[in-house]
Structure formats: C-alpha cells, structure tokens
Write the structure tokens for this entry.
Amino acid sequence: MPVEKWKINEEGVEKDLSKADLVDLLTKNNVTVTFTKADGTERVMECTLLEEVLSTRWKSNKDKPEEQNFGAIPESNNIAVWDIVKDGWRSFRMDSVKSIGIPTKSE
C-alpha cells in the first residue's frame, strides 16, 4: 500500500509530507502547526512530541495516554500532540494542515 502524503507549506516551501514524517518532526522539535478545525476556523498550535517535554508535563501515570493514542493514530489521518500553550493533549487531521513551522536557531 503506498504511503499517503499531503502537500504542506513548511517555512515557505511546499512539501509532500506523510503522517510518519510529521510525527518524526514532532518527536525532534517544537512545531507550529496551522490547520483548519472541524468548525471551519483556523487554529495555530505550538505542539510537540519531544520526550523531555512530555515527561515533565504528565502529572502521573494515570494521565499518560495509551501508547497508541498519541502521535500517529492508527488507521486515521489524525495526529495527537502535546499543545505547549494549552498544556494538554490535542489532535489535528493531516488533511486540515495548512502549514508547519519549525523554530530556527539564531546565531
């Protein structure tokens, strides 16, 4: 089965990104994702799947989602991420993503 890819604007460059590509990006960076919510409004979310962020945010083991419930959600276009600003789990659909931004290091 071919890997499904979506056209996404990443820092001004249109790229084809798979769900696995985006999850990999999220596990290595804080990412700004702009997407269209189910109600049609646009949302800009700063999010991540960085282990060092997740390990300090979970208050206890009971608050941790099941492993299959974060990152790429199987058999769907959804990705569950840690919303840095709202300090909680949120998700978005790959087909609703308008752009992805990754902070760059200033030298």
In short: The first strand starts at residue 5 and ends at 10. The CA atoms of residues 11 and 60 lie 36 Å apart. The helical segments are 19-28, 51-57.
